[in-house]
Amino acid sequence: MGMMPNPDVALDEKAIVAEAEKALADIATIRQEVAKVIFGQEKVVENTLLAILSGGHALLVGVPGLAKTKLVTTLGTVLGLDANRIQFTPDLMPSDILGTEVMDQDDTGRRSFRFVKGPVFAQLLMADEINRASPRTQSALLQSMQEYHVTIAGQPYQLPAPFHVLATQNPLEQEGTYPLPEAQLDRFLLQVDVLYPELAAERQILLETTGVSDRRATAVISSERLMEIQKLIRQMPVSDTVVDAILSLVRSARPGHGNASTDKNVAWGPGPRAGQALMLCARARALYEGRLAPSIDDVHALAEPVLEHRMALTFPARAEGMTVRDVIAGLVSDLRK
């Protein structure tokens, strides 16, 4: 009898290339299918998909009515994921997300507790307007995002695999919002800024969505296939030059690391999770763009979604009207020199 191949041994290069080419084709089909329903917003679709392909969670930030919910529903369908949605409100309790114990009584009168799973038990969870909920409820969700299980009355319950949270957040200027704490923002692999659509896309939205029939997306892959692609992405080799670019970008965003404008404008900078996010997402972005290896260009393109929610400006910088995006753009242009 032949030896069983050990799945943990990294595939040889030829096999990885063959696998990557299959993944390229799948990702291209996913892109086409999403584009049937979501018009314009290429950057938003790309970054949200990159977060999922990299196995992480994404925070979608933008005013209401920009099709964020529609995007998440569409991705659930196209990626073959079992999806749930929670609308966050100030009176939402942790048990409304995680689930509750209910007491059952059988014919003999014996009582026992049974756990009724909450909506967090899904492969793709849309957490709508996450910053409207109280900090306690936010942290219940964020803890399950981190630990991939839920503990109720001392008993752990595994969440399904894969498990992805796509949370939407209203701009903080809006009434009745509780900002997410910094440590919890760090749980999101990427922050995706959703802006108003371009004119051509908005025209298409008007024409396509106000008629009788509404276009619907169909499944392109299964959740099992998604997990295979996620595993493949972790096996893709990353060249030393790309690793160096990631390190210099993340480190230059931290005060006290020799970058004068950072020292002046940044109150606190990104931790090691930012580098991990760049390593994963750069590989995913290469495949998304039809390439087999990540490049420095991927690192530059991902700087904003990876770093934006992981750093904060000093008071004087904010008073001058500077934004975190301006600072990141400056760091990227320094790297290009």
TrEMBL record:
Its EC number is 3.6.3.-. Keywords: Hydrolase. This is MoxR-like ATPase. It is an enzyme of class 3 (hydrolase). One of its GO terms (molecular function) is hydrolase activity. Residues 263-328 form the ChlI/MoxR AAA lid domain. Residues 57-190 form the ATPase AAA-3 domain. It holds the Pfam family AAA_lid_2.
